[in-house]
């Protein structure tokens, strides 16, 4: 999963816990699509509350590969308002992260001995 998608899940963690019931279609869809293993499904279902189930799913998802976030979005058919909120947060993260990366990029000065020019990257 990409860093921006992990950040989106982290930033909306409490809202997702309050609004998404992972039992039923969400878990089964993620299992069907290979994002979750049978052991994951059993471990999530063993949790005593819906909130704990959702939190465990959110703990597992980031480590489940590059398609995990998009597949999670697809699994939220019963929760279209949540899916839209996640998509919007992802779009916002896509515009914010590149700007932050430019700030972090170090100014490098390299002297080219052959031509005695200073090159800036």
UniProtKB/TrEMBL annotation:
SMART domains per the UniProt record, alphabetical: CARD (SM00114)
Pfam entry (one): CARD
Molecular-function GO term, any one: protease binding
GO cellular component: cytoplasm
Domain (CARD): residue spans on this chain: 1-78
SUPFAM superfamilies, per database record: DEATH domain (SSF47986)
One example of a Gene Ontology biological process annotation: positive regulation of apoptotic signaling pathway
PROSITE patterns according to UniProt: CARD (PS50209)
Superkingdom, taxonomy of origin: Eukaryota
Name of the protein in its database record: CASP2 and RIPK1 domain containing adaptor with death domain
Species assigned in the record: Aotus nancymaae (Ma's night monkey)
């Amino acid at each position: 999963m990409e860093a921006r998608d992990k950040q989106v899940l982290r930033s909306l963690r409490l809202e997702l816990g309050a609004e998404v019931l992972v039992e039923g279609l969400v878990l089964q869809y993620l299992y069907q699509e290979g994002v979750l293993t049978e052991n994951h499904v059993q471990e999530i279902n063993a949790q005593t509350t819906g909130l704990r189930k959702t939190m465990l799913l959110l703990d597992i998802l980031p480590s489940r590969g590059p398609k995990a976030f998009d597949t999670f979005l697809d699994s939220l058919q019963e929760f279209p308002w949540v899916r839209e909120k996640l998509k919007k947060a992802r779009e916002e993260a896509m515009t914010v992260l590149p700007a932050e990366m430019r700030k972090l990029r170090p100014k490098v000065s390299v002297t080219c001995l052959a031509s005695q020019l200073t090159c800036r990257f």
